[in-house]
Specification:
Blueprint lengths: L6 E6 L3 E10 L5 E5 L4 E4 L4 E2 L9 E2 L3 E2 L20 H13 L4 E3 L8 E3 L11 H13 L7 H15 L15 H15 L33 H6 L6 H16 E2 L7 E2 L2 E8 L5 E9 L4 H4 L9 H6 L3 H6 L9 H4 L11 H14 L4 H18 L3 E5 L6 E5 L2 H11 L3 H9 E6 L2 E6 L2 H15 L1
Antiparallel strand pairs: 1-2, 1-7, 2-3, 3-4, 5-6, 8-9, 10-11, 12-13, 14-15, 16-17
Helix pairs in contact: 2-3, 3-4, 4-6, 6-11, 12-13, 12-15
Protein name: Myosin motor domain-containing protein
Organism: Aplanochytrium stocchinoi
InterPro entries: Kinesin_motor_dom_sf, Myosin_head_motor_dom-like, P-loop_NTPase
Length: 456
Amino acid sequence: MELKRDWMWIPHPIQLWQPAWIAGKSPIGDVTVKTLEGRTHRLPKINVMKGELTGGVAQRIDKKPMNRLVLDNIVEDLVDIDEISEGAVLNNTRMRFENEQIYTWIGAATRQVLLAINPYEDLSLYTAEKMKHYEVTAASVKTPEPHVFGIAAACLEGLLKQNRKQSILVSGESGSGKTQATKQCLDYLTFVAGSMKPEEAPKEAGGGRGGNRRNRKRRGPAVTGAVKMVNAGGKNSIEEKIIMCNPLIEAFGNAKTVRNNNSSRFGKWIEVYFSKKKRVSGARIEQFLLETTRVIRQAPNERNYHIFYQILQDEGLCRDLNLESAESYRYVNQGECLEVTGMDDAEEFDATKLAMEKLGLEDYETEWCFRTCAALLHLGNVKFEEIDIASTQQKGSRIVNDEFVKLASKLLHIDHDAIEKVLTTRNVKTRGETINTSRKKSQAAGARDSLAKAIY
C-alpha cells in the first residue's frame, strides 16, 4: 500500500530531510502530507512555511520527489542506492549509524572513498583480529565491509603489488573524527607491514572522539593503541615510535573547542616509508598552519593546548617551575574551561611523558619543553601601565608585576633586562639610523603576546 502512495522529501529542522507521503491536495494547490511518525503537515502552494518543519523560521519549502524503496533498501555502498538525493543519502547514512555501522562506501569496488560518521564513543571495531581480517581479505574480496582499515588495506595493496606511492586524504569538519581515522590508518599499516607480533598490537582503539554527544569511556585524546602497545612489551620498534607520536603531537597541537574536546589545531602531513622488503622503515610528520593565536587567547568554553593543563596537574613539576593552579594564569583561564569531561589531564601527561621517552628524547630536552611552556604561562601574566615619557610628550609603558618577567626569563635562560626592553620599547630604522622608541601600553601587551606565539 505504501509503495503506491506518492512520496516526497520535506524539510526537518534537525535531520534536514524527512520522508512523507501525500495525503491530499486542496483546490488552491496546498498539499497535505503525513510523515512516518503520523504527523500531518500542510505545505502551502506559495512554498513558505513557519513552524516545526523549519524550526520556527519562515522560509521557502522545497518539496523533492522520493523513491519509497530507499527507506527499505539500506546499502553499504552509496553507489547502489535506489535514489541519488540529499534526503536519500542522509537517511541511508543515519540508519546505518543507528545500527553502529559508522562506515559507508562510495564505490566499494575501487575502495577509494569512505564516508565515516564519528560515534563519539568506543566501538569494538579496531582490534588486531579486525586488522588481520582486512589483511587477508584485501586481495581476495572485491567489496569488503566498509571500514577505515579497508582504505588502509587498499593503499598498502597498491604500494606492495603495483609499486606505486599511495596517499590517504582525511577530510571533514571539526569533530568529524579525522584525528582518529588517521591514527587507525597508521595502526593498520604498522601492524600489517611492521615487525610487531599480533599480541603486541593494540587490542582495541576507540571508534571516534571529539564533541560532546555522549559520555565516552576513552582515557583521553591520544591514548588509543599507543600506550597499550608499550604496555604489551614493545621494544622501541619503528612502528611503535610511529604510533607513540600521537600522544605527543596531540598534547602540543590539540585543544578543546566548543565542538570538539580534542580538536587538532593544525594540519598534518604524514609520510610512512617502506623498505625494499616492503616493511615499514620510518616516518616523517610535518605540521603546518598551527593556530598560534590559541596560545594567548581562547573563546568561552574552550581551552589552550592540552600540554599546559597537563603540566599544571603535576605538583612536583609545578613546584620546580614556580607554577600555581590553572586559574592563576591568563593564557589558560580565559575560556573559563579548565577541565574536560571524560579527560584526565594528569593521566594524559603520563602518556605524553611516556611518548617522549619512547621517541628517544633526552631528559634535558623533555625538561626544556616543560620549562618553555611554564615560561609562557608566566609571561602571559605580565601587565603594563601607561607612563609619560619625560623627554617627549609621548606615552610609554612599564611593567607592573616584574616578578613574572623574572620567572619567565629564568626558565628561558634569557636576560631579564632584555625581555623587559623588547616588551616596552622597539627599534625604528630611519635614514640609516636606528631609534629606540617606547611602546604604548596596548603595544607592549601586543609585543608580549607576539613573543609568546613565536616561542610556542
